[in-house]
Amino acid sequence: MLDIGPLELVSLVVLAVLIFGPDKLPKLIQDVSSTLRKIRQFSDNAKEDIRSELGPEFKDFEFEDLNPKAFVRKHVLDKDELGLKEIRNGFDFKAEMTDVTDAVHGRTPDPAQPASPGTPDLLKKQEGLRPGERPPYDADAT
């Protein structure tokens, strides 16, 4: 119920009694509930009118599908007609980046090895540096 706990609910009831008074509160609750009922009935009637005007080819039309997130989830993510999951699972980011860096530096990859594991990772902390020694300067990284 809108993430309202029991303490908040009790405090809202006490506040409503203090503001409107115990004699006007039942009438106010009836008015609010009848207004909500009329709004819900108006909304349902409008939905039925739209469905009837669209015709029989749209009999399965749901208004929740007009929400962009629900539309994408229903038509793109649930049906994997494009093979997106296969593409995502077959993509090796580290190997692709190694190929790109080799191409940038003009190195030719060894066809016997699928990826060059001996290539140093420049993002990791360089081991073997003496205290006070700077890591090698990489002009492409700056």
Q: What do these coordinates show?
A:
The protein has helices at residues 6-20, 25-54, 68-77, 84-89, 93-105. It is elongated. It is built from 5 helices and no strands. By secondary structure, it is mainly alpha-helical. It has 2 domains: 1-58; 62-109, no CATH class. The chain is 52% helix and 0% strand. Residues 102-142 are annotated as: Disordered.
Architecture blueprint of SSEs:
Blueprint lengths: L5 H15 L4 H30 L13 H10 L6 H6 L3 H13 L37
GO molecular function, one term: protein transmembrane transporter activity
Pfam families: TatA_B_E
Family: Belongs to the TatB family.
Provide a compact summary of the structure.
Belongs to the TatB family. By secondary structure, the chain is an all-alpha fold.
Number of strands: 0
- Rounded to the nearest angstrom, the distance between the terminal CA atoms is 54 Å
- The best one-word shape is elongated
Can you summarize the main beta sheet? none
The ordered H/E elements are HHHHH
Keyphrases for this structure?
142 residues; mainly alpha; 2 domains; transmembrane; TatA/B/E; protein transport; membrane; protein transmembrane transporter activity
